Amino acid sequence: MRPPSVDVLARSLTDTGLPHPLLVDAARAAIASGVPDPAAEAARRARATASALLRPVINATGVLLHTNLGRAPMGHTSVAAYRNLEFDLQAGTRGSRSDHAGALLARLCGAESALVVNNGAAAVLLSLAALAGAGGRVAVSRGELVEIGGGFRLPEVFAQSGAELVEVGTTNRTRAADYDLDDLALLLRVHRSNFRMTGFTEQPSVAELVALARAPVVVDLGSGLLDAACDWLAGGPPAWLRDEPAVRQTLDTGAGLVIFSGDKLLGGPQAGILAGDAGLVARCAAHPLYRALRPGGLVLESLQDLALTYLRRDGETIAFWRMACTPVDVLRSRAEALDPAAAAACTSLTGGGTLPGVAIESWGLRLGGDHTAALRAAVPKPVIARVEEGHTVIDLRTVEPDDDALLGVALSPLSPR
Ligand SMILES: *Cc1c(COP(=O)(O)O)cnc(C)c1O
To answer: Model confidence at 416, in pLDDT bands (50, 70, 90)?
Structure first.
């Protein structure tokens, strides 16, 4: 029997929605594999290609900043158009891409100036390269040399900057006097954002470091809570935020520069923000690495919109904060509307390497058995759930209410009533 033609096979797969060249690839690979049923093999390959594409999913894990789901929920609605990315509309001359999102973020956290780069790790790298440089000595506590996730270790990021890491103190105890060294270019404080240390521990406050420092104090806060007062939330700061240091208050204590991510507690797109003293920010902006680490217009516009929303004190329209602060009885009603027999209390996490050990009360559905594979196959939006003690848990805190209907459809074959 002759194998089917590549073209006929490719055309039989058009309902996957993939462009023709990708269907041709699937068809060719299927025929080349020599399996007895190339049509089924081509369809399997096309489905695999389609499911590898980026697309919206329903996050039913209850992890608000799910690293594998892009951390904070984000969208982009821009249509293709020229934008005044580096053009000063008033003067009619070249402008700076820090003039919009950067300036608004600085305004929000009470900094003189702010600069946006690709992510938090890039911001750390840039600050060390620009403010310490090759051979510049940077003091860091041995209790703060953290691994972020995915195997990335801050000491290795630091090494790429060329700066010399001067470890001070011990794993569990570091005192202000440990930083009292000559010839430092910087003092670096790294927030223990993804782990907790208890017991016989000691760590000086940022204010103590500032008091003795003869060099700027840079604080890598990681999580990016803008202001401890949370004035964008009608109900004020939620109780679970209690111990999280905030950008504005850290700058108020005298830190020269604060570094944080855009997609953690800020609730925006992947970005790293350096905010603080105008002279320090300008040195970072003038360093050649900035050119390699700066974000594009899509991210800057998304951050600008987010900053304007914070300035309007409209936390309800920031998906992360709206989900994080949804009252538990609202979640309970949604769960009971979906499936009263399966509705159950559960707990959400902030995730994304923030607030370790902090659980947020929530409600969702609890179904016997592991149904996660079937839920991942749901169309049009895959549903990502978690398994706990032999049950599939669907946490509604991280599900947009508008997706409840789709979720109901995805669940209906699982719990026949
Ligand atoms: C998350 C984090 C980083 C890395 O930020 P990315 O945006 O993930 O690159 C660096 N430092 C601390 C303390 C963090 O929490």
So the answer is: low
Whole-number Å distance between alpha carbons of 15 and 101:
41
Q: In what order do the strands lie in the sheet with 137-141?
A: 113-117, 272-276, 257-261, 217-222, 184-190, 137-141, 164-168
Q: Answer whether 262's CB lies under 8 Å from 240's CB.
A: no
C-alpha 165 – ligand 1 centre gap (Å)? 18
pTM here?
A: 0.93
- According to DSSP, the β-strands at 343-351 and 383-384 are unpaired
pLDDT tens for each residue of 194-248:
888 888 898 999 999 999 989 999 999 999 899 999 999 999 999 999 889 999 9
105/86 Cα distance (integer angstroms): 17
188 falls in which pLDDT band (50, 70, 90)?
A: very high
Amino acid making up residue 10: A
Show the tokens assigned to 335: 């769960």
Q: What is the DSSP string of 385-403?
A: -EEETTEEEEEGGGS-GGG
Pairing state of beta strands 63-65 and 147-149?
unpaired
The pLDDT, as a whole number, for residue 415 is: 63
Whether the CB of 190 sits within 6 Å of ligand 1: yes
Cα(99) to centroid of ligand 1, in Å?
24
* Index of the ligand 1 atom closest to the CA of residue 193: 15
User: Does residue 315 have its Cβ closer than 6 Å to ligand 1?
Assistant: no
